[in-house]
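Before a computer can learn anything about folding, someone has to put a protein's shape into writing. The outcome of that step, for a single protein, is printed below:
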Amino acid sequence: MTNSTFLHEDKAIPPDETLDRKTQICPRCGAEMWLTRLDKKLSDENTEVTYSYECKNCGCAEEKTAVE
């Protein structure tokens, strides 16, 4: 018998499902992009967050950086 839960709380949640933000649209084909990576850099002044996206259709990739 395994120690798995019904809701699978032990599984990692993909970055695009943890954020409550608007999805990116691919500049090449106009399709919705997947959030593939989320990097945070902390400093004394602020937090810099880099979001990496990849298009489901054409494979176009881009990064967006925000200061929070």
In short: The domain at 21-67 is CATH 2.20.25.420 (N-terminal domain of TfIIb). The longest strand covers residues 33-42.
